[in-house]
Amino acid sequence: MSSFIKEISFRWSDLDPNFHVRHSAYYDFGAQHRIEILNELGLTLRVMQEQSFGPVLFREECVFRKELKLSDKIFIHTKTSKMKADASRWSIIHEFRREDDTLCATITVDGAWMDTKLRKLASPTPEIAVEALSIFPKSDDFIGL
Questions:
Q1: What does the pLDDT look like over 78-105, one tens digit per residue?
Q2: What are phi and psi of 5, to 5 degrees?
Q3: Do the Cβ atoms of 8 and 29 come closer than 8 Å?
Q4: Residues 6 or more apart in contact with residue 94 via CB below 8 angstroms
């Protein structure tokens, strides 16, 4: 598998005054897709609550290339682009592509795992997080940190 792919549908509320998808909607779709993927890999919110850890983002950036409109058929492709061997630090990219594979936007997030009791980075990385991220598809230019 080269990436997790999901077709997304835009809502009227996702539009800006120019009738194209507002900038913050991209981030919402990316966050939702990451959580759905982790859930699919067994890393559910319940598991994270029980083990007192969760993802934390250090950076989130979107590069906009083509405008998206309400009627566009869009697919979000998600994969890792960087990761430490112990999965303690990672980068995930989301590509928003039209049906014809035109790249419209790319979100990049850099993150880690936080111990929710201690309120600092989890060390060591919880094993279930290591397992989940090891399954995650990697970008063609993947970098091991």
A1: 999 999 999 999 999 999 999 999 999 9
A2: -125, 135
A3: yes
A4: 29, 30, 33, 34, 76, 77, 78, 106, 107, 109
Q: Are 135 and 72 in contact (CB under 8 A)?
A: no
Coil, helix or strand at residue 127? helix
Contact at 8 Å (CB) between 73 and 99?
A: yes
Q: How confident is the model at residue 71 (pLDDT cuts 50, 70, 90)?
A: confident
Domain CATH for 113:
3.10.129.10
pLDDT digits (tens, 9 = 90+) for 11-43: 999 999 989 899 999 999 999 999 999 999 999
What is the count of structural domains for the chain?
A: 1
Q: What range does the domain containing 42 cover?
A: 4-144
Q: How far apart are the first and last CA of the chain?
A: 22
